[in-house]
Each structure stands twice: as C-alpha cells, then as structure tokens.
Write a structure and sequence with these properties.
This protein is mainly beta. The chain has one domain: Sandwich (Jelly Rolls). The protein is 4% helix and 44% strand. It has one helix and 13 strands. Strands 1, 3, 4, 7, 10 and 13 form a six-stranded antiparallel beta sheet that branches. The longest helix is centred in the N-terminal third of the chain and has 7 residues. The protein is globular, with a radius of gyration of 16 Å. The protein starts with 7 loop residues before the first helix and ends in a 5-residue tail after the last strand.
Length: 170
Amino acid sequence: MRWGSPTKEEYWANFLQLKKEAKIFPPDEWKLQATGSIDLSATGAIVKGIPVVVDGFNILEANAANHYSAVATTPPFSMKKGSKLVMSFECRSDHEIKDSRIVFVLNNTKNFVFYPSEYVRNEWTKTDFLIEPDEELVSPVEFFIWNAGTSECLQIRAVSWKLYFTDKYF
C-alpha cells in the first residue's frame, strides 16, 4: 500500500490475515524487464555445497549441524539505480526462528540480508524480498541461509525472481 488506499490485490492478500507476510506489490511505474526461476538441484544453480531433498523438492537448509546452506545463484543481471529485483521463495521452519537469515550477495561485495523471523511458519510460506542496487553493475545474485551458529533450522525452496526498472526513485 502506497500513498493511501490499497489496491484490490493488496486488500485481498491481507484480508483477515493474522500473521505478517513479506510480499512485494510492484507499483504501476515499475516496468518488468525479465523473470526466471532457480533450479536448486546439484546440477542446477548450486555453486557451493549440496542441496537437501525434502518431499521431492531440492531445498536450501541451514540447521544445527550445518550453519550455512548450499549457495545458489541467479543468472547475471544488468542493474543500475532504479532496478528492482524481487526474489521470491517459499520458506519454513519447524521451530521459532530468531537469528537465521537469508543472505543475497551481488558482485561478491554487496550483501542484502533478509531476516525471516516474523514471516516463517511451520508450513511452506511464499515470501518476497526486494533488492535495490545503488550503482550500475552486472552481477549474478548468490544466496544462502546462515543460522548465525545457532541450532535453528530454516529451509527455502521454489526460488524465482522478477527484475523491474523505474525512472522514479523513492
């Protein structure tokens, strides 16, 4: 919801919701540039480590034994100020999450961190995260889970992305 009343999509997505959800509703001025999904299999977009298979899905998981998940990557994006990369995924945990985070790395130097503690449940929940670079670069986005050395177990699957661009900066 921006500058007043929600759109129809925003209204119905939040109607009678008792738990917070991390969803991105792109404004009309965001122009869609490209979309895609990430193959989390060992022969797909995994660049380090080994994904876990749960219920027939390849997932990224950090837990008490492995504080870092496998590292996955997107294809390279050409981004500049005004680019908006929406990373979408499903996440879940069977326990309360306090310290675990999902780290997104651009150009091996810029980290964007998502703390899912308020959004994660013990069922798969679709979640969005917005990445807005402040400079021009061509880079894939590498991402992984880190549980900050705790015994928390966090899982993500069904990763996709949408790249938008707008000349309006907020």
